[in-house]
Amino acid sequence: MLTEERYAAILRILAEKKAVTVQELTRALDASESTVRRDLTALHKSGRLYKVYGGATSIDNNYSSNEEDMRTKRELHTEGKIAIARHAASLIRRGDFVYLDAGTTTLHMIDFITEPSAVFVTNGMPHALKLAEKGFKTFILGGRLKDTTEAVIGTEALSMLALYNFTKGFFGTNGISTESGFSTPDAPEGLVKKTALARCTHAYILADSSKFNKIYPISFAGLASATILTDVLEDKKYRDYTTILEGEAN
Length: 250
Description:
Blueprint: H1 3-17, E1 19-21, H2 22-29, H3 33-45, E2 50-52, E3 55-57, H4 70-73, H5 78-89, E4 97-100, H6 104-109, E5 119-122, H7 125-133, E6 137-140, E7 144-146, E8 151-153, H8 155-161, E9 166-171, E10 175-177, E11 181-184, H9 187-198, E12 200-206, E13 218-221, E14 227-230, E15 242-244
Parallel strand pairs: 4-5, 4-9, 5-6, 9-12, 12-14, 14-15
Antiparallel strand pairs: 1-3, 2-3, 7-8, 10-11, 11-13
Protein backbone atom coordinates (compact mmCIF):
# COMPACT_ATOMS: atom_id res chain seq x y z
CA MET A 1 0.00 0.00 0.00
CA LEU A 2 1.36 3.42 -0.96
CA THR A 3 1.92 6.10 1.67
CA GLU A 4 -1.00 8.29 0.57
CA GLU A 5 -3.26 5.24 0.47
CA ARG A 6 -2.31 4.44 4.07
CA TYR A 7 -2.99 8.06 5.05
CA ALA A 8 -6.44 7.88 3.47
CA ALA A 9 -7.18 4.57 5.18
CA ILE A 10 -6.11 5.89 8.59
CA LEU A 11 -8.32 8.96 8.20
CA ARG A 12 -11.28 6.80 7.10
CA ILE A 13 -10.89 4.64 10.22
CA LEU A 14 -10.65 7.73 12.42
CA ALA A 15 -13.73 9.28 10.82
CA GLU A 16 -15.65 6.19 11.87
CA LYS A 17 -14.11 5.41 15.27
CA LYS A 18 -12.85 8.87 16.43
CA ALA A 19 -9.89 7.18 18.16
CA VAL A 20 -7.62 4.30 17.19
CA THR A 21 -4.54 2.52 18.57
CA VAL A 22 -1.31 1.75 16.74
CA GLN A 23 -2.02 -1.96 17.12
CA GLU A 24 -5.44 -1.61 15.49
CA LEU A 25 -3.91 0.25 12.56
CA THR A 26 -1.12 -2.27 12.04
CA ARG A 27 -3.74 -4.98 11.67
CA ALA A 28 -6.07 -2.94 9.48
CA LEU A 29 -3.29 -1.76 7.14
CA ASP A 30 -1.14 -4.90 7.29
CA ALA A 31 1.80 -2.58 8.04
CA SER A 32 4.59 -2.54 10.60
CA GLU A 33 4.27 -0.62 13.85
CA SER A 34 7.13 1.69 12.89
CA THR A 35 5.42 2.52 9.58
CA VAL A 36 2.14 3.31 11.31
CA ARG A 37 3.89 5.53 13.86
CA ARG A 38 5.64 7.45 11.06
CA ASP A 39 2.32 7.88 9.27
CA LEU A 40 0.64 9.18 12.44
CA THR A 41 3.48 11.64 13.01
CA ALA A 42 3.19 12.95 9.45
CA LEU A 43 -0.60 13.28 9.68
CA HIS A 44 -0.29 15.00 13.05
CA LYS A 45 2.21 17.53 11.70
CA SER A 46 -0.05 18.26 8.74
CA GLY A 47 -3.00 18.89 11.08
CA ARG A 48 -5.15 15.98 9.91
CA LEU A 49 -5.28 14.13 13.24
CA TYR A 50 -4.03 14.33 16.84
CA LYS A 51 -1.29 11.85 17.67
CA VAL A 52 -1.57 10.66 21.27
CA TYR A 53 0.37 8.07 23.24
CA GLY A 54 -0.32 4.66 21.68
CA GLY A 55 -2.49 5.90 18.82
CA ALA A 56 -4.43 8.87 17.46
CA THR A 57 -7.72 10.75 17.72
CA SER A 58 -9.62 12.64 15.07
CA ILE A 59 -9.40 16.43 14.87
CA ASP A 60 -13.12 16.81 15.59
CA ASN A 61 -12.83 14.62 18.68
CA ASN A 62 -11.19 17.26 20.87
CA TYR A 63 -14.37 18.51 22.61
CA SER A 64 -16.12 16.35 25.17
CA SER A 65 -18.45 16.65 28.13
CA ASN A 66 -18.33 13.02 29.23
CA GLU A 67 -16.41 11.76 32.26
CA GLU A 68 -15.61 8.19 33.28
CA ASP A 69 -15.91 7.14 36.91
CA MET A 70 -12.87 6.49 39.09
CA ARG A 71 -13.01 2.73 38.60
CA THR A 72 -12.79 3.14 34.82
CA LYS A 73 -10.10 5.83 35.00
CA ARG A 74 -7.87 3.63 37.16
CA GLU A 75 -7.55 1.22 34.23
CA LEU A 76 -6.56 3.87 31.66
CA HIS A 77 -2.99 4.99 30.83
CA THR A 78 -1.72 3.38 34.03
CA GLU A 79 1.96 3.22 33.08
CA GLY A 80 2.12 6.90 32.19
CA LYS A 81 0.18 7.94 35.29
CA ILE A 82 2.54 6.04 37.58
CA ALA A 83 5.62 7.61 35.98
CA ILE A 84 4.12 11.08 36.37
CA ALA A 85 3.04 10.37 39.95
CA ARG A 86 6.50 9.16 40.95
CA HIS A 87 8.12 12.33 39.62
CA ALA A 88 5.50 14.58 41.24
CA ALA A 89 6.02 12.93 44.63
CA SER A 90 9.75 13.62 44.42
CA LEU A 91 9.00 17.38 44.35
CA ILE A 92 7.62 17.36 47.90
CA ARG A 93 10.17 18.75 50.36
CA ARG A 94 10.54 19.17 54.09
CA GLY A 95 7.96 21.55 55.53
CA ASP A 96 5.73 21.62 52.45
CA PHE A 97 2.03 22.32 52.91
CA VAL A 98 0.49 20.43 49.99
CA TYR A 99 -2.88 20.47 48.26
CA LEU A 100 -3.65 17.13 46.60
CA ASP A 101 -6.51 17.27 44.11
CA ALA A 102 -8.87 14.35 43.55
CA GLY A 103 -8.00 12.10 40.61
CA THR A 104 -6.28 8.86 39.69
CA THR A 105 -2.79 10.22 38.97
CA THR A 106 -2.69 12.22 42.21
CA LEU A 107 -3.86 9.07 44.01
CA HIS A 108 -0.87 7.17 42.58
CA MET A 109 1.39 9.92 44.00
CA ILE A 110 0.75 8.78 47.55
CA ASP A 111 2.59 5.49 46.92
CA PHE A 112 5.80 7.47 46.30
CA ILE A 113 5.65 10.27 48.90
CA THR A 114 8.48 9.86 51.42
CA GLU A 115 8.74 13.26 53.15
CA PRO A 116 7.32 12.69 56.67
CA SER A 117 7.08 16.37 57.61
CA ALA A 118 4.78 17.37 54.74
CA VAL A 119 1.18 18.23 55.63
CA PHE A 120 -1.66 17.54 53.17
CA VAL A 121 -5.08 18.94 52.37
CA THR A 122 -7.21 17.06 49.83
CA ASN A 123 -10.72 16.92 48.42
CA GLY A 124 -10.29 13.27 47.38
CA MET A 125 -11.89 10.74 49.71
CA PRO A 126 -9.59 7.84 48.72
CA HIS A 127 -6.63 10.22 48.92
CA ALA A 128 -7.40 11.20 52.52
CA LEU A 129 -7.74 7.57 53.57
CA LYS A 130 -4.52 6.52 51.85
CA LEU A 131 -2.54 9.46 53.24
CA ALA A 132 -3.79 8.75 56.76
CA GLU A 133 -2.98 5.05 56.44
CA LYS A 134 0.60 6.00 55.56
CA GLY A 135 0.86 8.20 58.63
CA PHE A 136 0.79 11.64 56.98
CA LYS A 137 -0.89 14.57 58.70
CA THR A 138 -3.97 15.02 56.53
CA PHE A 139 -6.98 17.36 56.31
CA ILE A 140 -9.98 16.72 54.08
CA LEU A 141 -12.27 19.45 52.77
CA GLY A 142 -15.89 19.44 53.85
CA GLY A 143 -18.81 19.53 51.44
CA ARG A 144 -20.76 17.32 49.04
CA LEU A 145 -19.21 14.07 47.81
CA LYS A 146 -19.35 13.63 44.03
CA ASP A 147 -19.69 9.89 43.51
CA THR A 148 -18.16 9.58 40.02
CA THR A 149 -14.84 11.24 40.91
CA GLU A 150 -14.95 10.61 44.69
CA ALA A 151 -14.21 14.34 45.13
CA VAL A 152 -15.58 16.71 47.76
CA ILE A 153 -17.09 19.83 46.18
CA GLY A 154 -19.42 22.71 47.08
CA THR A 155 -19.49 25.94 49.09
CA GLU A 156 -18.12 24.35 52.27
CA ALA A 157 -15.02 23.17 50.40
CA LEU A 158 -14.52 26.63 48.89
CA SER A 159 -14.83 28.28 52.32
CA MET A 160 -12.18 26.01 53.79
CA LEU A 161 -9.80 26.62 50.88
CA ALA A 162 -9.95 30.36 51.54
CA LEU A 163 -8.12 29.74 54.83
CA TYR A 164 -5.13 27.96 53.32
CA ASN A 165 -1.86 29.03 51.68
CA PHE A 166 -0.20 26.02 50.06
CA THR A 167 3.46 25.77 49.15
CA LYS A 168 2.63 23.25 46.43
CA GLY A 169 -0.48 21.85 44.78
CA PHE A 170 -0.90 18.85 42.48
CA PHE A 171 -3.96 18.75 40.23
CA GLY A 172 -5.67 16.53 37.74
CA THR A 173 -7.35 17.75 34.56
CA ASN A 174 -9.58 16.25 31.89
CA GLY A 175 -8.40 18.48 29.07
CA ILE A 176 -5.50 20.73 28.09
CA SER A 177 -5.63 23.13 25.16
CA THR A 178 -4.02 26.40 24.13
CA GLU A 179 -7.49 27.87 23.57
CA SER A 180 -9.16 26.86 26.84
CA GLY A 181 -6.31 26.05 29.22
CA PHE A 182 -7.09 23.33 31.77
CA SER A 183 -10.68 22.13 31.67
CA THR A 184 -13.06 19.68 33.34
CA PRO A 185 -16.68 18.58 32.74
CA ASP A 186 -18.24 19.69 36.04
CA ALA A 187 -18.66 23.33 37.16
CA PRO A 188 -18.62 22.74 40.98
CA GLU A 189 -15.52 20.54 40.76
CA GLY A 190 -13.88 23.02 38.40
CA LEU A 191 -14.49 25.82 40.91
CA VAL A 192 -12.77 23.83 43.67
CA LYS A 193 -9.79 23.23 41.38
CA LYS A 194 -9.64 26.92 40.43
CA THR A 195 -9.83 28.10 44.02
CA ALA A 196 -7.24 25.63 45.33
CA LEU A 197 -4.81 26.31 42.47
CA ALA A 198 -4.94 30.04 43.18
CA ARG A 199 -3.87 29.34 46.80
CA CYS A 200 -0.66 27.54 45.72
CA THR A 201 2.81 29.08 45.46
CA HIS A 202 3.74 26.33 43.00
CA ALA A 203 1.02 24.46 41.08
CA TYR A 204 1.47 21.33 38.99
CA ILE A 205 -0.93 19.69 36.57
CA LEU A 206 -0.44 15.92 36.30
CA ALA A 207 -1.51 14.84 32.81
CA ASP A 208 -0.80 11.82 30.64
CA SER A 209 -0.62 12.35 26.89
CA SER A 210 -4.34 11.62 26.33
CA LYS A 211 -5.29 14.93 28.00
CA PHE A 212 -3.65 17.23 25.42
CA ASN A 213 -5.71 18.97 22.73
CA LYS A 214 -8.90 18.18 24.63
CA ILE A 215 -11.50 20.73 25.71
CA TYR A 216 -14.20 20.21 28.36
CA PRO A 217 -17.03 22.61 29.25
CA ILE A 218 -15.42 24.25 32.32
CA SER A 219 -12.00 25.94 32.21
CA PHE A 220 -10.46 26.27 35.67
CA ALA A 221 -7.03 27.80 34.89
CA GLY A 222 -4.85 29.06 32.06
CA LEU A 223 -1.77 27.20 30.89
CA ALA A 224 0.60 29.77 32.43
CA SER A 225 -0.82 29.22 35.93
CA ALA A 226 0.79 25.80 36.47
CA THR A 227 3.59 23.52 35.31
CA ILE A 228 2.37 20.47 33.41
CA LEU A 229 4.01 17.17 34.35
CA THR A 230 3.62 14.57 31.61
CA ASP A 231 5.24 11.38 30.36
CA VAL A 232 5.15 12.13 26.64
CA LEU A 233 4.67 15.38 24.73
CA GLU A 234 3.67 15.12 21.08
CA ASP A 235 2.63 18.71 20.43
CA LYS A 236 5.43 21.27 20.64
CA LYS A 237 3.10 24.21 21.31
CA TYR A 238 2.85 23.04 24.94
CA ARG A 239 6.60 22.80 25.47
CA ASP A 240 6.97 26.10 27.35
CA TYR A 241 4.45 24.96 29.98
CA THR A 242 5.60 21.38 30.39
CA THR A 243 8.13 19.19 32.18
CA ILE A 244 8.52 16.02 30.10
CA LEU A 245 9.62 12.94 32.04
CA GLU A 246 10.75 10.65 29.24
CA GLY A 247 11.03 12.84 26.13
CA GLU A 248 8.88 12.73 23.03
CA ALA A 249 7.52 9.51 21.63
CA ASN A 250 8.50 8.47 18.15
